[in-house]
Design goal:
Elements (H helix, E strand, L loop, with lengths): L7 E5 L6 H9 L3 E5 L13 E3 L6 H11 L3 E3 L7 H11 L6 H8 L1 H10 L7 E4 L5 H7 L5 E5 L9 E3 L5 H9 L6 E5 L4 E10 L2 E11 L9 E4 L5 H18 L4 E10 L2 E8 L7 H9 L3 H9 L16 E9 L4 E3 L5 H4 L4 E6 L10 E2 L2 E10 L3 H17 L1 E3 L2
Parallel strand pairs: 1-2, 1-4, 2-3
Antiparallel strand pairs: 5-8, 6-7, 6-8, 9-10, 9-12, 10-11, 11-14, 12-13, 14-18, 15-19, 16-18, 17-18
Helix pairs in contact: 1-10, 2-3, 4-5
Length: 403
């Protein structure tokens, strides 16, 4: 009698953020199919089957999934991969988020409209189609300061906080470069920034990890995250309840979700929902802090199996991750390994530089180059945050990004 055929898992994208998914799926005994437009993407060599297909070519990805009869489809950190994942889920009748729900999540205005219709707090948001309606849109969101953002881009690209009318036109023009579905102006929400990595199963939040966010001046998105969150227990529980309500408002019942939020008084205000595992080292962060493997849980859920057992917390270790970023877009110069001394530090669990010497960084957000990332542990969350910030500043100071 021949052994049973292994389950076949499609991972859309095979870059650095998808490598962990590929490894965990194989560790669970699955046969992994990876697609990426780059044949030499790091995850391609790890998969059982690798196909050089652009992840935004939804029809090609679906055709491959049908031909290979995949049993699951998923991605991590990549918003560009989400439409193909959801299309495969619909075509194959798999567990996950269907295209209609993904379409709402990927259009920020539709997200805010759905959440607002459910009676939940969101920033006032207006689409700007032309200059004629700009002043009315600004007034509708409460004036300055305000946020300008593409309606459908991700990773902070094209997002700006604008303090007055003088900088508004330039911010809108920059956002248009990423705006497949228009440009939005939005109320600037003061308050405490937190992120949540949540897992839903059959309409219930079965796990949620609330993260503190850290920022760097002039960069609009978080450059770091830390765990455990330093909110008090009652407030953290309220945030988790609010996350469940946000997910229900847009129709998500199963799978991993990444949330950007602001805590204002006793309210949690939604900034963004990403219908996939988060990026910026969040999976590694949660694994280090709690011993929870988000990648394993995501694979189990995609295969239609309850991810709850994989999400049980096993220990608590304060930890912080941080991006290494520098202002500028151009040739990257450094002498030797700027992180060499830090690599010997007992508290440093990961320090990665992703920049080729003498070339521009392959990853960028607007006028910023992303040079790498780090992850550190410490006795407390605050100490971990401080150490990660110090490491990042030291390493980046030894790197030059020429215009």
């Amino acid at each position: 009698m021949s052994p049973p055929k292994p389950e076949r898992v499609l991972v859309v994208g095979a870059g650095p953020f998808q490598v962990d998914l590929i490894a965990r799926a194989r560790g669970l005994g699955a046969e992994v199919v990876a697609v990426d437009r780059l044949p030499d993407a790091p995850g391609m060599a790890l998969a059982d089957h690798a196909f050089p297909i652009n992840i935004v070519d939804v029809a090609a990805v679906v055709a491959l999934a049908e031909r290979l009869q995949v049993d699951a489809a998923l991605t991590a950190a990549s918003d560009a991969a989400v439409p193909a994942v959801s299309a495969v889920i619909e075509a194959r009748g798999l567990c996950g988020i269907p295209p209609a729900v993904v379409a709402v999540c990927r259009d920020k205005l539709r997200t805010f409209e759905a959440v607002h219709a459910a009676g939940l707090p969101v920033p006032q948001t207006r689409r700007v189609d032309d200059s004629d309606g700009l002043d009315a849109a600004v007034e509708a969101v409460g004036g300055f300061p305000l946020v300008v953002k593409p309606a459908s881009a991700a990773g902070g690209r094209g997002v700006a906080v604008v303090s007055g009318r003088a900088g508004l036109d330039a911010a809108i023009e920059r956002a248009r470069q990423y705006a497949g579905s228009g440009v939005l102006v939005q109320t600037f929400v003061e308050g405490r920034s937190v992120g949540v990595e949540a897992f839903l199963w059959r309409g219930q939040v079965v796990a949620a990890f609330v993260l503190d966010d850290q920022y760097q001046p002039l960069f609009v998105s978080p450059v770091g995250h830390s765990l455990p969150c330093t909110l008090d227990a009652a407030t953290e529980a309220a945030v988790v309840r609010d996350v469940a309500a946000f997910a229900a408002a847009v129709g998500i019942t199963d799978g991993p979700l990444n949330f950007d939020l602001r805590r204002v008084g006793d309210q949690t205000v939604l900034i963004e929902i990403n219908p996939r595992l988060g990026g910026s080292s969040i999976t590694e962060l949660v694994r280090t802090c709690y011993g929870v493997d988000l990648s394993e849980a995501a694979v189990l859920c995609a295969l239609g199996r309850d991810p709850t057992p994989a999400l049980a917390r096993r220990h608590v270790q304060p930890v912080a991750s941080r991006l290494l970023i520098a202002r500028g877009r151009g040739r990257v110069d450094m002498v030797g390994d700027p992180g060499l001394g830090w690599r010997q530090h007992d508290a440093v669990r990961a320090l990665r530089l992703s920049v080729p010497e003498g070339q521009p960084s392959p990853l960028a957000v607007d006028e910023w180059s992303l040079l790498g990332s780090c992850l550190v542990v410490a006795p407390t969350t605050g100490e971990a945050e401080a150490l990660a910030a110090r490491l990042a500043a030291d390493v980046v100071s030894a790197i030059t990004v020429e215009p």
